[in-house]
Amino acid sequence: MKKLLLTLTLLLGLSATAALAQDAAAAPPGPTATEISTSAARAAAAAEVAGGVAEDDQKAPAYLELLESQGEYGYAFDFFAVSMLWTVIAAALVFIMHLGFATLEAGLTQAKNTVNILFKNVFIICMGLLTYALWGFVSHYPGDGWLIEGFFAFGKPIGDLNADGGDTFGYGGLALAMTGFGDFIFQAMFAATAATIVSGAVAERVKLAPFLIFSTLLVGIAYPWVGSWHWGGGWMGSLNGGNGFKDFAGSAVVHAFGGFAALGCVLLLGPRHGKYVGGKIRPIPGHNMPLATIGVFLLFLGWFGFNGGSVLSAAPGPLGLVVTTTALAAAAGGLSAAIVSWMFLKKPDLSMALNGILAGLVGITANADIVSPAGSIIIGLIAGIIVFFSVLFFDKIKIDDPVGAISVHGVCGVWGILAAALFDTTDSGYTVFGQLIGVVAVGAAALVFSLVVFGIIKVVTGIRVSEDEEAEGLDIGEHGQEAYHGLFATAER
Amino acid sequence: MKKLLLTLTLLLGLSATAALAQDAAAAPPGPTATEISTSAARAAAAAEVAGGVAEDDQKAPAYLELLESQGEYGYAFDFFAVSMLWTVIAAALVFIMHLGFATLEAGLTQAKNTVNILFKNVFIICMGLLTYALWGFVSHYPGDGWLIEGFFAFGKPIGDLNADGGDTFGYGGLALAMTGFGDFIFQAMFAATAATIVSGAVAERVKLAPFLIFSTLLVGIAYPWVGSWHWGGGWMGSLNGGNGFKDFAGSAVVHAFGGFAALGCVLLLGPRHGKYVGGKIRPIPGHNMPLATIGVFLLFLGWFGFNGGSVLSAAPGPLGLVVTTTALAAAAGGLSAAIVSWMFLKKPDLSMALNGILAGLVGITANADIVSPAGSIIIGLIAGIIVFFSVLFFDKIKIDDPVGAISVHGVCGVWGILAAALFDTTDSGYTVFGQLIGVVAVGAAALVFSLVVFGIIKVVTGIRVSEDEEAEGLDIGEHGQEAYHGLFATAER
Amino acid sequence: MKKLLLTLTLLLGLSATAALAQDAAAAPPGPTATEISTSAARAAAAAEVAGGVAEDDQKAPAYLELLESQGEYGYAFDFFAVSMLWTVIAAALVFIMHLGFATLEAGLTQAKNTVNILFKNVFIICMGLLTYALWGFVSHYPGDGWLIEGFFAFGKPIGDLNADGGDTFGYGGLALAMTGFGDFIFQAMFAATAATIVSGAVAERVKLAPFLIFSTLLVGIAYPWVGSWHWGGGWMGSLNGGNGFKDFAGSAVVHAFGGFAALGCVLLLGPRHGKYVGGKIRPIPGHNMPLATIGVFLLFLGWFGFNGGSVLSAAPGPLGLVVTTTALAAAAGGLSAAIVSWMFLKKPDLSMALNGILAGLVGITANADIVSPAGSIIIGLIAGIIVFFSVLFFDKIKIDDPVGAISVHGVCGVWGILAAALFDTTDSGYTVFGQLIGVVAVGAAALVFSLVVFGIIKVVTGIRVSEDEEAEGLDIGEHGQEAYHGLFATAER
Amino acid sequence: MKKIEAIIKPFKLEEVKEALNEVGIEGMTVTEVKGFGRQKGHTEIYRGSEYTVDFLPKLKVEVVTADNQVEAAVGAIVKAAKTGKIGDGKVFVSPVEEAVRIRTEEKGEAAV
Amino acid sequence: MKKIEAIIKPFKLEEVKEALNEVGIEGMTVTEVKGFGRQKGHTEIYRGSEYTVDFLPKLKVEVVTADNQVEAAVGAIVKAAKTGKIGDGKVFVSPVEEAVRIRTEEKGEAAV
Amino acid sequence: MKKIEAIIKPFKLEEVKEALNEVGIEGMTVTEVKGFGRQKGHTEIYRGSEYTVDFLPKLKVEVVTADNQVEAAVGAIVKAAKTGKIGDGKVFVSPVEEAVRIRTEEKGEAAV
Ligand SMILES: Nc1ncnc2c1ncn2[C@@H]1O[C@H](COP(=O)(O)OP(=O)(O)O)[C@@H](O)[C@H]1O
Ligand SMILES: Nc1ncnc2c1ncn2[C@@H]1O[C@H](COP(=O)(O)OP(=O)(O)O)[C@@H](O)[C@H]1O
Ligand SMILES: Nc1ncnc2c1ncn2[C@@H]1O[C@H](COP(=O)(O)OP(=O)(O)O)[C@@H](O)[C@H]1O
């Protein structure tokens, strides 16, 4: 374990140094061509998003034409500036989702594993940002740098993404109204999300170092690889009869990806000791519901940026629609999960209502820009019901997922993708079948990646802590650190 | 109880379906007229806000004229886009106030009622958003669709609020520089606030289902009804000798409304068991001061959006003034409450300082755009003193309000309304008398609504848990779920 | 103690009244000249920032020239509006750092001192905002109102900062694209940070009232005084051979200032009882790691505004660069601190990883706008390593700093200043020597101020609680209030 | 001397304390405990599954006192703690051979 | 009557409870405690420094029962709580002179 | 065998532990408790109202040991826990009839 870790460190150090060298060589003489070209593929990806915008905006083509006709983009600078600002703020909002995940996962697990959960989440956001800078971004958006056309591209460190001046639509055009750095930071915040989803599902029993290595590979390599199929302009553009796969902000390429990766890990890992005893389910209640609630509210907040920022500009029409549908779906999901739990369990279950909000949010993520408010409410209501039965189902088949990540992100991610075809108000030609192909491809890739990579790690180093350590808690076992110190700690020193 | 709940569910489902049908019929053929017309009333309401802006902006009329003279609003699109962006971000900030309320209320009550508090807050934001979409928004801003002119209008589900294109000043003009969806989502986040205020005051003893029904009616029906008098262009426009009622962001129509509704509920509910014993007050300390502190800081943060967003555009002059006066009043309120508690109780009381910050914020909410920085400091200092004595007063007369909601939102809401007349620097003709009429009307409506509706529910189903349940805690009684699980839970499973 | 406090209160009250009087006199007749003139000094300070921008923006001079050539700034209004909006949002983000500090400090100390920590943080943000309005802002940015040229200026209350109309570049020019109130509120949120840094270092043993007086003087007088040397256009402009001191967002004038002030206080205060026993270090573990983690994530979030807002406009090029370098440095700091702790202590230390993130953030603060992404990663990696050894070092020499404030803010603040010379990609002529002079001046001023002022207070009233009170906890001793109440509290009432 | 250990319902502490004070007992030590007995636990719900919680929160009050005070003390506790509903708890009396007041090193009944 | 006090590893509670139920004991009181003994504590880390934690989390199970049930009860506890690894805990038996059921004021063995 | 129960001030635990180790006692069990006694509680403030907190945090240290060690152990505890200020706490000694080490099933003094 230690060796793998040190290797990792070394590799990281080397890449950073390499990046610096490259950077040092490239920067001074004068602005060279931007590393991330605004390639055809990128433009195509952007155009897909613009599609949604344009359809809503039929009244304003005059203005848009005006902007495009200006050789210098002079007057348009302000729209560009406001869009770029929104991108940065949206990145900050997505960032805070990582705190949301950390507190939600900590709240829904036992006190004795809290330091471990928190450490994993701190690690993932840190490592996620770095690997995305050193490899992921370029691999995610390969432009015309594919190794296997539309399917896989190598990554490399980002360079000076302001090389084009950083102040015009030159980087991404009207539909990607941001600078290269804006694009990078927003996407980088997304990247770490997928690995964080897994972290909740494997909580309370996974060995730390193997998981860190796995999650580094997941966030660093697998996420941008699979993501390139859709957002990078890859093969998914030919789905739905050429209309392209519809996954607005990532129900599939972020959430289902994370959820199915989690499923693979849980299959290899097995349930927590004592969860299923003699055919009976014995719930292991989370230790801190206020923490879990803080987590869900922060995730809801962050989703304003996750979906809202995915408009990729500050275009007022789509922006207003997207935040409205997002909020309504979340509300509907929370309410329906609460009501269903009340009807089936006799009492209203806070932990379910919280999962319901997230279910609604994941469900609307694929389609927030193409559904009506009423559609978003129905998508959310159904997502809340789905998550309730899904959680029960996975418990029944003894897939132990302490925070419900597989149900919330995996199952509801699929629902969101299908809902894009079912509730589309823009007649864009998305079909249930086409959507299904896309999400199955993403889910299968995530599942297989997990089974193979985590499987190899399992054979090489093991992936599960000892039964004793699980009983005592991973905080002491893995970290030698406890999350809470009361009167006693004070007394003892 | 269960029956009422199921009925509620059914009604909600039906309305959603109806909304969808309507929506499906309306949307495809082509953009029909917007559901929410930019009616005279709306324009009038907007103009009131614009008034404040215009007075500060006497130097820039040329630019504003320029904007208005442009038939196509071409160049102005950017100001529109930035204003709309601010509206969306402000909505997100107001959203996070709901987490603030949840943690503040949970922190200031006992551990055994924490799941209950959290559930109520989760429910209210979910239900509040949905009812506002299905009824509230249209009832709040009736345009010319009044049933009783200036006094009451029916609501109905929102439709496609982007029907006007969602990209010009056509929706609300310069003083309401946002799209219909922007307007909706910002207002929707406000709506749930009033019910949340009540939730804190009735904590630790109210029966869950009756409260949920009451709060659904409060947020769904009563809040937009009373709000329409002022912001919907209703009768309050004739107050202050025709200058209109001055309540910038809702000291009266949000906070005093919530505070007096809370008073009504507490009168019907009675104090917590053990709070007043033999003529003596026995404080029931909150179980978690960090949680309460997190709550107040999040509320302070959210108020940047609550007041700042109420500028209703990104006009730089008023925006800067409003956030400055808001922050200074909060600071002054926190400080004076701390100092007063220190002088009267010998020790500085954190719980009072926290209430003082909120008192300052509520106090500045009615007038943030028309007072000077010095004025805002004085408003805050006085609010902090008021809240201290008000909390003591209500305790003395045995009105048991676990979180001080009546004092903070009710009493300081009134103070804010009066302060608008006392500290106005714009010579707008607001009088103490005119302001008083307005806030008394709002407070009385809230109080009467609570007494009647909650009174009826009291008779029909009861509103208070059994003494045993109160002693054992509502978490187990109402939810069968505990907020905290320690070593023991682990051990027992 | 009480007397000092009352005096303080009185002074505050008087100044507020004076401010009101002045304000009342000045405001009504008509907009007089702005109180804060856009003086030569201010323009110079602004130009320094603009420098960084301009160099990145070589491709867009045409647009900038266009803006400047417009007498009326007409078309530029939108860029101004979006920049001002960003300033306000950045202020809100910096505000939330105060909650970050509060929870981080509370989490890393003992449960029995939690109310005390929280109260101090509430007090400091309140008092900080007020003193900055009444004295600090004018003293920080004296324009040409120096008492001792480039070295010291008296403060006075802010007046109507919208007196110039609040809607054009007239206030600060292109490089300070905000209104006077925007400028004020953003700077005011910064101001309280320095005192908050100290609060963590002196935690668990400092007497409340003396500390409040000290921190009032620190935030009210010392911070703007020292800050004026750099940001106020003072003598530091002549450093680095006239290129000026490079401290983008305050590694020196905020963080090192706070860190060295903390060092002075800790030297006078001595370590906590039981921390160093018989030559051995006995760690006193924090009572709540989730709280500490929430704190660090919120600080990370706030830094988007701290550094991003320090662009002082929404110029897309620098904004994207700054948030990217900031996030990468934070990630690198967290990772390297975690890895170093893992290598040296055998286990990965969450508390160290958290400190590492902050170290990276402090390290990038001086130079976020002039380094490359690769540079920022290296700055962060080194900061994380520095903080690890620095924490160990101060423990070894028995400087007891419960939260690591001296290491994080002091030592890494110095590192950030030096890194500005080492990793500069803009050839601006910053030298290690010039930078060192600047940061030593700032650090020395903070240290001497603390030693003198806190030293005097120590002699007059004492600065440390009794040993009994320290053992029992400051919550009961200073506040008569406990942070947590369990089953017991419920039972006892 | 005897040690009286009473397991009571948490919200009865204040009354028990006052009852003991009234019979002249001014020292006691209280512990948070969980009790299992005839009073059946309740069902709880968590993320869609039900489970039974058998252990209920109780308080244990310990009083060491002179032999001749035992009866009064036990009587006082029983009276104050009784609600008549199942789960009211138990009182146990056991022998104590020695007591020392740490502060003064007084021994025996003088120490309690 | 006797009081049986057992210090056990926390995760053994459920098994001990069931073992006691099987020998007919249906009342017990449990406390969270920290134990110090031969089982050595562990090293913890905090902000770069190591320290030793000597006190480990244990649970104390208290059962008051009739004399003739003591042996069965002790046997049941020992069997259920044993892992064979150091730190398994202890069982102590001590005399109880009186027991009262608060609800009914029953005394003696009828009360437990 | 005897059981020694000491109620002490929380911050004295470390010293008491070391004092016990020095007289050869290497096992003990500690519980967080709240004490009521001559040491008066303090006034607390909450949202503008004052109230008295009578119960103060203490720790209970329990040691079961052979008869011939009792005196040394009690002496060690008293010496280590004394500050001379009110509220220092008490030590109680009571009889224990049997002890079992769960791991080995050793009985009697060998078990403690
Ligand atoms: N044999 C026993 N030994 C120790 N504690 C007991 C015993 N029986 C009951 N208790 C304690 O007394 C509490 C109340 O007992 P229970 O049987 O529920 O009701 P009741 O006291 O009304 O008979 C239990 O929760 C448990 O803490
Ligand atoms: N003499 C004693 N008095 C009271 N409790 C004891 C005593 N010796 C041990 N214990 C308790 O028993 C627990 C287990 O004892 P330990 O010596 O660690 O292992 P083992 O029971 O396997 O011998 C300790 O943690 C402590 O709580
Ligand atoms: N009669 C008693 N029975 C049980 N515990 C007692 C008794 N008297 C005192 N105590 C415990 O001893 C602690 C200290 O006693 P107190 O009377 O306050 O001071 P001192 O020990 O100095 O006389 C109390 O807080 C309580 O926990």
What keywords describe this structure?
heterohexamer, A: two-stranded antiparallel ribbon, 1% strand, D: 112 residues, alpha+beta, Alpha-Beta Plaits, two-stranded antiparallel sheet, 2 helices, binds adenosine-5'-diphosphate
Word description of this protein:
The complex is a heterohexamer, with three copies of chain A (493 residues) and three copies of chain D (112 residues). Chain A is an all-alpha fold. Chain A has one domain (2-492): Ammonium transporter fold (Orthogonal Bundle). Chain A is built from 17 helices and two strands. Chain D has 112 residues and is α+β, with helices and mostly antiparallel strands. Chain D has a single domain, classed as 2-Layer Sandwich (Alpha-Beta Plaits), CATH 3.30.70. In chain D, 20% of the residues lie in helices and 41% in strands. The model of chain D has no long low-confidence stretch (mean pLDDT 94). The interface between D and F is medium-sized, with 24 and 34 residues. β6 of chain D pairs antiparallel with β7 (98-101) of chain E, so a sheet runs across the interface. The structure holds adenosine-5'-diphosphate (3 copies). One adenosine-5'-diphosphate sits between chains F (7, 35-39, 56, 58, 86-90) and D (27-29, 62-65, 101-103, 112).
